Amino acid sequence: MTNTSVKRKQELKLALGLVLPALIIMAAVNLYPLIYSFVISLRDYDFHGDKSYPFCGLENYIYIFEDVRFWRSLGITLIFTAGAVTLEIGLALMCALALNRKFRGQGALRVIALLPWAIPPVVNGILWKWILNPRYGALNGLLMQLGVIDEYIVWLGSPSLAMLMVILTDVWKETPFIMLLLLAALQSVPSYLYDAAKIDGAGAFRTFKEVTLALIRPALFVALSLRTIWALKSFDLIYALTQGGPSNSTEVLGYYTYQKSFVSLHMGRGAAAAYIMTFIVLLIVIFYQKAVYQDVEY
Amino acid sequence: MKKNSIRTVIFIIFVIFFILIVLFPFYWMIVSSISPQVELTEKPPHWIPQEPSLKRFVNLLFGGEGGNAARQRVFVSSLITSVIVSVSTTIICLVTGTMAAYALARIRIAGVMKILVGILIAQMIPMIVIVIPLFLFLKGVGLYDSRLGLSIVFTGLMLPTVIWIMFGYLKTIPTQLEEAAIMDGCSPFAAMVRIVIPLSVPGLVAVGAFTFLNTWNNFFVSLVLTASRAKPLTVVITEFSSQFGIDYGLMATGGVIGCIPPILLTILLQKHIVSGLTAGAVKG
Asked: Domain A71-297, what fold?
């Protein structure tokens, strides 16, 4: 009895020793700032103002909620997220279905599909900014040579076109990766299920719905929720590609919050905006979580 | 038979189309980096450069004729920063993260699941929430705009993911071997170092690559937490446009250099990445 309790004590000591370094770093870099950020959001933390940064209650939150630009950027974020995620999942599913067979060069194709995912998002941004350049860009040049357009287009010049381009740039980077994820799920569907469906006389559409889609649903959910969360937090791509322009039409929440904190240098408002953004992300996470749980039971 | 061959042709066309769309931007980035300035402003574009040269790469990395000495210094310094920060973050994450994951996976501790869920939630939080206080904090302790400051911050940001993945990996390694070793008088710590660590090398390699990639590719945190001395590559490349007028050739060159490490890692470790993905997707 005493022997086991001594052993248990030693074990716990070891556990503590092993966890401690990681715990200290995470507490300092994640937990402490998370709490402190909330404190900042309750103060008049303006670099241009009173250096004592007095507490001001919910004033910063009220400011954000009354800011037209905030609501606009929330709308832009939702449009960007819905557009990008729908296109990415849809295209990825189509590509995965088309590529779901054995062929030579499968490994090479997999490596190629990983390349856009691997590069820094900011490089993705500057690369497409160059391709979309209105005067010397490759896209205008190509479309002109193919006879699709007869004059150069300013791709990032008008609000809706710029938004479309931002979405397409994101689609280029993220779709191949999601396709690999879905392809892996498709390949784990046992072939006898398809045989069984055939014997039962199920048509192509029914087989797709009842066998394929049903079995890759968990993977689809993972892809959907991860992509949504990441899209809501987008910043790098926008910064490099449009800087939120033209006339703030691509200013997503991440960019808005950045502007408030590090360009206007009002940390209090920035922190309040950041907290509101976190809250929105968490709401969506909870929503997805519920959906996934239901899915498992069903 | 005929129907089959038509389908094959369509399939091949689809694959080629897919590859073209994925690879063309890369091709164009490389072409732009080696084309002389005059060719970049040609209409229609020179799809194949007529006089390719590595001049931009040489100028950017080593300076010399036609180069801008100040820009070369800034670029090389940012390259060194990126390497130092990514490597040190990866090493600290692997050591401390594996230790923590081992304790969580092997030793009965009350509330392990709660800790793990907390770690998962930590990954969902938009980085800007914690970056604002970190900015003030690092300024306060004199670590703002330093490689050490960046490394510490990235370690903290990556640790939750590292612990989460290593926890899952360690759970797949059977406990019997360590138990036998402990029976034979080996201490639990020695059992971990001598038996569990060697068995988890594939997991460590994958997690290490993932950490390196994420640190190397990060832009936002570095943008906020550095000003001049410790700017990494990703931040410096974007400034080729704002500071010196838009120089797309140079940005493409910086882009190519910035893409080399993550792409090399991805190609070397593609099997690990894809299987890691699959496991994650299946488990949910």
From this structure: MetI-like fold (1.10.3720)
User: Based on the domain organization, do B247 and B221 belong to the same domain?
Assistant: yes
Q: Is A110 on the interface with B (CB under 8 A)?
A: yes
Domain that holds residue B45: 2-53
Query: Is the Cβ of A276 closer than 8 Å to some Cβ of chain B?
Result: no
Averaged confidence pLDDT in chain A: 88
The total number of structural domains that make up chain B: 2
pLDDT profile of chain B (284 residues), mean per 10? 80 92 95 89 86 89 77 93 97 95 84 78 84 93 95 94 87 84 83 85 88 94 93 92 69 95 90 63 37
**pLDDT of amino acid B275:** 67
Nearest chain B residue to A123 by CA distance is B255
Question: Three-state SS string across chain A, please?
Answer: CHHHHHHHHHHHHHHHHHHHHHHHHHHHHHHHHHHHHHHHHCECCECCCCCCCCECCCHHHHHHHHCHHHHHHHHHHHHHHHHHHHHHHHHHHHHHHHHCCCCCCHHHHHHHHHHHHHCCHHHHHHHHHHHCCCCCCHHHHHHHHHCCCCCCCCCCCCHHHHHHHHHHHHHHHHHHHHHHHHHHHHHCCCHHHHHHHHHCCCCHHHHHHHHHHHHHHHHHHHHHHHHHHHHHCCCHHHHHHCCCCCCCCCCCHHHHHHHHHHHCCEHHHHHHHHHHHHHHHHHHHHHHHHHHHHHHHC
| Cβ-defined contact of B107 to A12 (cutoff 8 Å) | yes
Residues of A in contact with B216 (CB under 8 A): 120
Instruction: Please indicate whether, in this complex, the C-beta atoms of B44 and A222 are within 8 angstroms of each other.
Output: no
Within this chain, do residues B270 and B200 fall inside the same structural domain, yes or no?
yes
Q: Which residues of B touch A257 (CB under 8 A)?
A: 126, 128
Is there a contact between B96 and A222 if contact means CB atoms under 8 Å apart?
no
